[in-house]
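Ticket 4471: requesting a sanity check on a complex prediction with glutathione. Repro inputs:
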Amino acid sequence: MAEVKVFGAWGSPFSKRVEMGLKLKGVEYEYIEEDLKNKSTLLLKYNPVHKKIPVLVHNGKPISESLVILEYIDEAWEGPNILPKDPYERAKARFWAKFIDEKCVPPMWKACWSIGEEREKAKEEASEALKFLENEINGQKFFGGDTIGLVDIAANFIGYWFPITEEIVGLELMTQDKYPNLSKWAYEYCNCSFVKENLPPNDKLVEIFKGIIQAQPASN
Ligand SMILES: N[C@@H](CCC(=O)N[C@@H](CS)C(=O)NCC(=O)O)C(=O)O
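Returned C-alpha cells:
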C-alpha cells in the first residue's frame, strides 16, 4: 500500500489545504504535527528550500507548497476532481488560487495584526482584492461550481480563519453587507461535512489569536 505522510501544523490553513485535498480524494495518510519553533530534521530534509509545512511525502518522495501539493494529489489519485478537466477552467482555477495567496491572504493577515496607517493600507488592499473574489463566485455555490475544488480549498483562510481573527481583533472587513456572496460561500464551505470535520477547533484558534494580542506591545 502507498505510504502517504503529511507534515503539518494543526492551526495552519496551508496545512489544512493538503489534508482537505486528501480527504476529498479519500486517501488515507499519516499526519505528523511539526513544532514550528523546533522543526524536525525530517521537515528540514524534505523542505530544505522553504523549511515550511506542509510537506506531503508519497512513497518517500517529498512535495512542498500547498497549491503544488493539491495539484499533485489531483493527478496522483482517482476520485473527485480538485482541478477542472477543461484546460481553460483549469487555468482559471490556478489563476484564482495564486491570486488568493498573493493578493488576498497577505493584506488580510496584515490588516488584523498591524496598526495605524499600515493597517488602513492593508484594509484597503484586502477590500479591493476581496471584491474580485466576490464577483468571481457569481451565484455559484462554490468557486468550483456545485462542488468544492482548488479555489475553494485555497480560500480556506478566507472562509474560516479570517472571520475568527477579525472578531478577535475587532476588525470589520469581510462583512455580509459588503460581501454577500463570499459570506454565503464561507458558510457553505465550512459546513460541508468533510471540511467541517477537519477544520481546527474554533476555541483553540481563538486562544492562539488572543495570545498574539497579549504578546503585542501595549500601544497596539
Ligand atoms: N506558500 C506556502 C506557505 C506555507 C507556510 O507559510 N507555512 C508556515 C505555517 S502556516 C510555516 O511553515 N512557517 C514556518 C516558518 O516560516 O518558519 C504553502 O502554500 O505551502
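Notes from triage: The chain has two domains: 4-76, 87-215. Leaving this open until the requester confirms.
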